[in-house]
Amino acid sequence: MTDVQAPPPRPKRKKNIMDLLVQFRWIVVIFVVLPLSFLYYFSIYLGDVRSECKSYKQRQKEHDENVKKVVKRLKERNASKDGLVCTARKPWVAVGMRNVDYKRARHFEVDLSPFRNVLNIDTERMIAKVEPLVNMGQISRVTVPLNVSLAVVAELDDLTVGGLINGYGIEGSSHIYGLFSDTVVSYEVVLADGQVVRATKDNEYSDLFYAIPWSQGTLGLLVSAEIKLIPIKEYMKLTYKPVVGNLKEIAQAYMDSFSPRDGDQDNHEKVPDFVETMVYTPTEAVCMTGRYASKEEAKKKGNVINNVGWWFKTWFYQHAQTALKKGEFVEYIPTREYYHRHTRCLYWEGKLILPFGDQWWFRFLFGWAMPPKVSLLKATQGEYIRNYYHENHVIQDMLVPLYKVGDALEWVHREMEVYPLWLCPHRLYRLPLKTMVYPEPGFELQKRQGDTKYAQMYTDVGVYYAPGPILRGEVFDGIEAVRKLESWLIENHGFQPQYAVSELTEKNFWRMFDGSLYENCRKKYRAIGTFMSVYYKSKKGKKTEKEVQEAEQETAEVETPEVDEPED
Description:
Uridine Diphospho-n-acetylenolpyruvylglucosamine Reductase, domain 3; 6-stranded antiparallel β-sheet; 15 strands; 18% strand
């Protein structure tokens, strides 16, 4: 193994007025975004409390009435006069970083804003039935006191069930349960013609069930989902293990932290409940592994309990970094606080948004107001600042086969120099139908570390921060860097979640993702001409109505491809 060479020096970048606006944007954040965020969060919380005061029966009754309103609204659409169907949610409300430019074209709005209720928590069947706008903070607040939880709880409070299903969702438990959509038992969907169907993996709508994940809501309107619950305990016993070495050595230590070299990946004694690694420099990282622990165990004499959810606490990524100085240590964190450990500082993006936000005095006086709501940050940035971030900042996730994680780390260092990096493993299942994301053909024959016969182990390399060249005042082409990232992913059977800014052409989009099942379902369930295709919904830049309609017409005229099924 060889150490990665330092990237060559780049020319100095000339600063302009946009650099100044971004540098002092914290003023807007402090005096406008944070107060508005607090009021927004509080109003949402009151709405959730009102909902929780209602019986499950009453919530289900209101849900059924709201579904009827959606069906009625869809039937009011005149296909020859009205634009394609979109939700009525404002573009800036979405948590994702890509521009929601598709709503600039003429479109027909359907209001899904009432769909934000937990409809049922069935602890006998171990199923949670929820509406698509239920977020992670809301569902964990309801389930954790019952000692049950969703199998995959995405870290940020604001992430919604609908976004995690139609898009992408991962957590430190995904090396066991897969992506968020892999934990779904059924979908309730309103199709283009107003028909309401329930899709499961083994009923007549099984093709739709497998096609919905990653489809960005372009096959129908999701109005509820049943999701798997798992039993949990009150605390997470978390072990912090420092790693010092080159990037390939860090990658191997990360793999060893959760995947036994003997291939016994399904042995709970050998595989922790939660895993993540943060790479702080090209030579330093901290691997974290967690196991659920009872209240009795956590409170035994000598054990350290860390309530990371308190507003004045050191930001989690900085707390974990202390392991590099003091060595390996163990502590117990209340389970719900552990789930949302990255919320207050938005991983480490909070350091860029508020350069002094991690200081003790700010945390103590104003930490309770954190984090600023991502949607309000987007709403107050304007198009010029938004474009500035696209060119000088990186927020991307690279989903790559686990055995290639070392190569991915070296690539990011060479092309972007972004640190810290977030590593989180996930299973990519071998399913009955070939979906938009799928494991490498023949992976089960290779018997690589982390793989099983039924799933290939992948890892998310989270790249979130200003690149090294930008921090040094050097030239950096963010658009070209993203294009190179996308090309590298295509060459290495990787995937790019489409919440992020994408530079993919349509041809390369379908080189990265498999569209056979998706396009079959688009035609079978009459989504063409009603919902925008997933590429045009994800595509960067403004979508004109003519452009979209022509693309839809081309799709309708192409012969339906055969759906690939994995070989036995």
